[in-house]
Design brief:
Shape: elongated
Strand content: under 5%
Radius of gyration: 29 Å
Structural class: mainly alpha
Length: about 100
């Protein structure tokens, strides 16, 4: 066996080891992250298609009514997207948002 043959066989076994490690690699951090994400957002396979909810915020609500009162004028929680839309519309109206 020549030195060249020995070098080639060493490279082959090294490549085989890398290939076997790649096949057996398990990303435990990703698995844990996916599980935490599923707990946070819920399992999408169990969701039913929901009809859009009626808005909680009245179309004629003012900023002062919404945010400057100490009491809660809403009969149920306001979805984040709805509140963001309300605030962006208000900020646009007062030229506070570009």
């Amino acid at each position: 066996m020549t030195m060249e043959d020995a070098y080639d066989s060493a490279n082959v076994s090294s490549n085989d080891k890398e290939t076997s490690l790649e096949k057996n690699f398990v990303n435990h951090a990703e698995i844990a992250w996916q599980e935490m994400r599923k707990n946070w957002v819920g399992d999408s396979s169990k969701r039913t298609s929901e009809l859009p909810m009626e808005p909680v915020i009245s179309f004629n609500a003012t900023y002062e009514e919404m945010l400057l009162n100490n009491h809660t004028p809403f009969h149920k929680p306001i979805p984040l997207a709805e509140m963001v839309d309300f605030l962006v519309d208000y900020w646009h109206g007062d030229c506070l948002f570009d």
